[in-house]
Amino acid sequence: MLKAASLTPKTAMLFAQLYKDSGVPDGVINVVTCSRNEINTILEHPDVKGITFVGSTPVGLKIYEKAAANGKRCQALCQAKNHALVMEDCALERTVAGVINSAFGCAGQRCMALSCCVVQDNIADAFVAELKKQAEKVNCGPAWDKSSRLGPITYEKHYKEVLADIDKGVAEGHATLVLDGRNTVVEGYENGYFVGPTIFDHVTADMTIGDEEVFGPVLCIKRCKDFEEGLAIMNANPYANGCDLHPERLLCPGVCPPYRRRPGRHQRGYSGTGRLYPPSAGTKSPSSATCIAWVSTLIASTQRARRSPPTGSMRRRKRQRKSPPGTAPSKRINSKSTPIMVCSFLILSLFIRSLCPCQTGPDFCRMYR
After folding, report:
1. What does the buried/exposed string (b/e) look like for 81-94 if buried means 16 or more CB atoms within 10 Å of the residue's CB?
2. What distances in angstroms separate CA 25 from CA 43, 47, 353, one per listed residue?
3. Which long-range contacts (C-beta less than 8 Å, at least 24 apart) are formed by 255-262?
4. Residue 77 in contact with residue 288, Cβ under 8 Å?
5. Of 205, 184, 206, nearest to 194 (Cα)?
6. Helix and strand totals (H; E) in the chain
7. Who's near 7: CB < 8 A, 6+ residues apart?
């Protein structure tokens, strides 16, 4: 059962229609459209066994508390502050283009929107200049116009909140407002809730816009001296969701060996291509009850990366994996397909766990009848 967002239910309706058109039987996926006033019916209903929530932290805490009081499993995905780490050897124009799409797509109103870039001092000025140049070309307009790259804020109250956050960033005085999107006016839609691309430079952790989620087209630039300081800045933020790394030589031997895959059960991040595990991954704030930090690296860098020599423990594990005498050797999975397989498994498992708290037994069977 999917409770659609009160102000934007058409996306959920289209999602259900696509499933129906593909042949999924009626009743497998159910969309409920209602206001927040009817949520208690869902939270208290005995047939509802598990709840997944995506939204603001205050609402998420209330839903988590209500679900627990009624004996239901709950995962609450709430406030986020996604960071990108940009090093001096990145492909500048390509990196900036990716940052633009992530920060300003959907007007910054999505859980994985990039809201902070931690940039190495050596290239920070050039990065900000290229960022401003490309951001000024982002066209604001209605979502149904194919030429539009940045649509409006969803509703008036949040529109005013985004403007207030920008005003607060200016008032705090530490950062430089590189690009101001507060006075954006779209012809024919003069009363629309449009906020253009907004960029702050020299943002520090003690600033509100650098520490809290804005949920709008506002990008903050923080500066660092090197890779280690950049990771420290990202880890200092209490919120999680994801981090994006943009160094070309990241996976080469000797560049960042402490963050390669280590033996043991408790791996706190995932990178299917480079096996990189920075400490910024994992659950950080209680408001993000379940957080998976996806670490994405540039494809070009992973293709050029060289494998480091195996350590003694790695050699022992390889010997242990050898097939016993007289048995056929096991086939190795194609490394190129591994990231897709792992991502598909994680998404499927999270979906099933959120819908049904018991993976076997009558609850699981009844869901598919």
Report:
1. bbbbbbbbbbebee
2. 25, 20, 21
3. 255/227, 256/227, 257/308, 260/308
4. yes
5. 184
6. 12, 11
7. 154, 155
Place of tokens 């988590």: 64
Q: Which of 257-280 are b and which e, b meaning 16 or more Cβ less than 10 Å from the residue's Cβ?
A: eebbeeeeeeeebbbbbbbbbbeb
pLDDT of residue 279: 38
Catalytic (active-site) positions: 111
| pLDDT of res. 37 | 81
Q: What is the pLDDT of residues 83-110, one digit of tens each?
A: 999 999 899 999 999 999 999 999 999 8
Give the residue-averaged pLDDT of 199-208: 93
CA dihedral 256, 275, 131, 107 (to 10 degrees): -140
Candidates 145, 280, 119; CA nearest to 199 is 119
| Both structure tokens of 225 | 């001296």
More confident residue, 228 or 270: 228
DSSP 317-329: HHHHHSPPTTSPP
Place of tokens 């990771």: 231
Distance of CA 302 to the CA centre of its chain: 21
Three-point CA angle 148, 294, 43, nearest 5°:
85
Ramachandran category for residue 107: left, alpha or beta (phi over 0 → left; psi -120 to 50 → alpha): left
Confidence of residue 359 (pLDDT cuts 50, 70, 90): very low
To the nearest 10°, report the CA torsion of 104, 106, 109, 115: -20
Closest CA to 195 of 179, 210, 209, 183: 183
Which tokens in the block code for residue 262? 């280590």
Q: Is 39 left (phi over 0), alpha (psi -120 to 50) or beta?
A: alpha
Helix (H, G, I), strand (E, B) or coil at 114: strand
Residue with tokens 């600033």: 207
d(CA 206, CA 186): 34
> 3-state DSSP call for residue 361?
coil
